[in-house]
Amino acid sequence: MKNEYEDIEQLERYQKGECTSEEKKEVEDRLANDEAFRGLYDDMELMVLGLKRTSGGSSIEDKIELLRKTVELNEEREVINLKSWFTKTRINLSIAAVISLLIASMFLFNNVGNNSPESLFQDYFQPYENLNSALRGNEQEIDNITRAYLAYERGEFENAILLFGNIDSITENRTTHQFYLGNAYLGIGEGKNAIPLFLEVSRSTSILADTAKWYLALSHLQNRDTEKAKKILIEIQNSRNDYSSQSKELLEKLN
């Protein structure tokens, strides 16, 4: 029976396309019928993929996704003891480096990944409650506004954006409409479109001005601009309004 070292060498040749037709058939038969051999092959495939992504300057999201795949694979079957495996088999050092990267990424995923801008945005974003169910105006304006807010209240944000776009831009409650339109954009992941809306509301005399600053900070967070988000959060924290405690908490997670 072939030992593990011979299996690894055979699989390396198979991955590189260096096997004879007989060796290729033998490998494919074993992959179909030998669970341990298939597990070894899956490990090597993940390592090679990790090496390619690392050398190619991939993003941290790609590395974390690779880590997730490794963890999922290991949950389905017994994990090979990597330390003894590398000691016994003299595996290629470049692949060993990828394993070191994955181990380091495990700590990153557990300790830092949960504080990424994306995850923090999801933790703190809640669409602002619809408080505008009874607005006044001419008949057509009432119809457009009512439908826009109903769509917003139902979480139909794309439809709400279209309906808000049909509201007269000089309507009396323009800044309020902009505020909810910004929330709708955040609801579909388009923080970049929400930023100018919240910025204008925050500079207005509207009662929503302070609240708009909080959502402006979240818009920058969704847009992965953590420095701008932190600058606004510091301002909110120092102003001691309804969002001061949340801003302080969020700042601590960002720092």
Chain-wise SSE layout:
Elements: H1 4-16, H2 21-33, H3 35-55, H4 60-76, H5 82-89, H6 93-111, H7 117-124, H8 139-153, H9 157-165, H10 174-187, H11 191-202, H12 209-222, H13 226-239, H14 244-254
Helix pairs in contact: 1-3, 2-3, 3-4, 3-6, 4-6, 8-9, 9-10, 10-11, 10-12, 11-12, 12-13, 13-14
In short:
With 255 residues, the chain is mostly helical. It contains 14 helices and no strands.
Q: Give the SSE string.
A: HHHHHHHHHHHHHH
User: Counting H and I runs of at least 4 residues, what is the number of helices?
Assistant: 14
Helix/strand structural class: mainly alpha
| CATH arch. level architecture of the largest domain | Alpha Horseshoe
The parts where pLDDT drops under 50 for at least 5 residues are: 54-58, 74-94, 109-113
Rg on CA atoms, Å: 27 Å
Q: Describe the main β-sheet briefly.
A: none
Average pLDDT for all residues: 77
Strand fraction: under 5%
In words, what does this structure look like?
With 255 residues, this protein is mainly α. It folds into two domains: 4-111, no CATH class; 121-254, Tetratricopeptide repeat domain (Serine Threonine Protein Phosphatase 5, Tetratricopeptide repeat), CATH 1.25.40.10. It has 14 helices and no strands. It has helices spanning 4-16, 21-33, 35-55, 60-76, 82-89, 93-111, 117-124, 139-153, 157-165, 174-187, 191-202, 209-222, 226-239, 244-254. The radius of gyration is 27 Å and the shape is elongated. Mean pLDDT is 77; it is low at 54-58, 74-94 and 109-113.
